[in-house]
Amino acid sequence: MTKILGIIPARYNSTRLPGKALIDLGGKSMLQRVYEQVRKAQQVDRVVVATDDARIYEHVLAFGGEAAMTDPKHQNGTDRCAEVAQQIGAGFEVCINIQGDEPFIDPSQIDAVAALFAQPDTQIGTLVKKIDVNDQIFDEKEAKVIFNAQHEAILFSRSPLPYLHQVPKTTWAQTFDFYKHLGIYGFRTEILANIAQLPPDPLEQAESLEQLRWLAHYRIKIAFSHIDTVSVDTPEDLEKVRQHLATNPQ
């Protein structure tokens, strides 16, 4: 049976919402809520928070979690995951990178990514959701994806994918199935080590989407989710989450 390591990258210095990993959400920090959701995933054998901040490290230990300190020079969460995989990943064939700012991630979403690795040819796996609201197709904050018949990603973009020629933009969601990318990734452990060494890709830099660097070298298989994720990136996002918890305690 494939052994899977769940890694939650968490940093303190967020540009738009500093210290968001430790923000209180209904009596628990956002990071603790993410950690507890990952622990519920049936296919994840071990969960570790990857951080470069002593405050986050000590907080994770205080609520009974496991954390690892990483190099503060890392540019992104993927590099932080790669370091943790190198530190403690021996015996784990797959590592799953779970975003530390999605406090309500559903364990079934994590298991859906893990299940992709039952196929021995899966190198990288991720999750997508069908877009139901027309405006999301044109939202540059949402990465869209198109894929082939084998459910392997062809391209990710902040622009609409595909472009529906001669179709009124107000009807695109009703005319074609568009998919948004959900930011959870699974990697074969050796491939995670390799992608941390890859140089930046021009397409990645143009779109500011790191998965485009990987796509230039590896296949990315996708699983489908009917559940959206809620990311906390701004004070407005935080207020919405707190309002949700006020009416739906968890």
How do the strands and helices of this protein lay out in sequence?
Elements: E1 4-10, E2 24-25, E3 28-29, H1 30-39, E4 46-51, H2 54-62, E5 67-69, H3 77-88, E6 94-97, H4 107-115, E7 124-130, H5 134-137, E8 144-147, E9 153-157, H6 172-175, E10 179-188, H7 189-195, H8 202-207, H9 211-215, E11 220-225, H10 235-247
Parallel strand pairs: 1-4, 1-6, 4-5, 7-11
Antiparallel strand pairs: 2-3, 6-10, 7-10, 8-9
Q: What does it look like?
A:
It is built from ten helices and eleven strands. The protein has 250 residues and is of the alpha/beta class. The protein has a domain at 4-125 and 180-204 and 215-238: Spore Coat Polysaccharide Biosynthesis Protein SpsA, Chain A, CATH 3.90.550.10. The strands form three sheets. Strands 5-4-1-6-10-7-11 form a seven-stranded mixed β-sheet, with helices on both faces. Strands 2-3 form a two-stranded antiparallel ribbon. Strands 8-9 form a two-stranded antiparallel ribbon. Helix 2 (54-62) links the parallel strand 4 and strand 5. It is globular. It starts with a strand and ends with a helix.
Features:
250 residues; alpha/beta; Spore Coat Polysaccharide Biosynthesis Protein SpsA, Chain A; seven-stranded mixed beta sheet; two-stranded antiparallel sheet; 10 helices; 22% strand; globular
CA-atom Rg in angstroms: 18 Å
Mean pLDDT: 93
Q: How are the strands ordered across the major sheet? A: 5-4-1-6-10-7-11
Reported by name, the CATH topology of the domain at 4-125 and 180-204 and 215-238 is Spore Coat Polysaccharide Biosynthesis Protein SpsA, Chain A
Largest sheet: 7 strands, mixed
CATH H-level superfamily title of the domain at 4-125 and 180-204 and 215-238: Spore Coat Polysaccharide Biosynthesis Protein SpsA, Chain A
CATH architecture of the domain at 4-125 and 180-204 and 215-238: Alpha-Beta Complex
| Structural class by sheet pairing and helices | alpha/beta
- Based on Cα principal axes, name the global outline: globular
The percentage helix is 25-40%
Write the element-wise H/E pattern from the N-terminal end onward.
Answer: EEEHEHEHEHEHEEHEHHHEH
| Fraction of residues in β-strands | 15-25%
Per DSSP, the total helix count is 10
